[in-house]
Amino acid sequence: MCRPLLLFLVAASVTTLAQNPSVDPKPLVEKALSAVGGKDKLLKIFRFNEIFHFGDQPEPPAGKKRSTRESVYSQPDQWWLGKKERGDEPAKDDVRAWSLDLLVDEKSKFEIIPDLIDEGKTCTGLRVSGSVTPAMDFYFDKETTLLHRLDWRGDFYRFSEWKEHDGLKYASKTILFKVKGGKPWFFHEITELERLAKLPEGLSKS
User: Fold this and answer.
1) Structural domain of residue 120, as residue ranges?
2) Disulfide: which of 6, 57, 107, 164 matches 131 by Cβ 3.0-4.6 Å?
3) Which helix (H) or strand (E) holds 9?
4) pLDDT tens-digit map of 84-121
């Protein structure tokens, strides 16, 4: 087979995959949930401690500040820093993404998108819309079905350093990159995570 024809067939097959509504995304969603411990192990109410700063290393660049904080989060959209709820904050959707809560939202719509090779890993693509705007592109490592990358709002996130808490696997480290140019710009690490049975005293859902 001549090379131009081969390239055309490969491109056509990728386009068909991206646009073919008959490709059922549900098996991928179920595998992704199973990979972290199962739907029943997903976080609902939890406390977590973080460090975060500009840069892409555990320690910030010279002249940059390292920040720490303790938060309480209640799915889907309540996030307290101390006693203050954060209100309308896009970062809440980031939490719903890495915790996979968006995969169990009844409003979520799923679409298989083309595979991606990132950092040598072949990843299966899943677009999630309906419960988040704009849509998010999730990329799951084909070997583990753990979330490796997320593309959203002009950034992409790489997840690493998987840990386990109470039967749930979660990525403790995230580095944010600019899609345009692929430049890393922000480091985030979960240093402690605790599942809660109920909201702590003094916090209530609005």
Assistant:
1) 23-43+54-65+96-192
2) 107
3) helix 3-19
4) 999 999 999 999 999 999 999 999 999 999 999 999 99
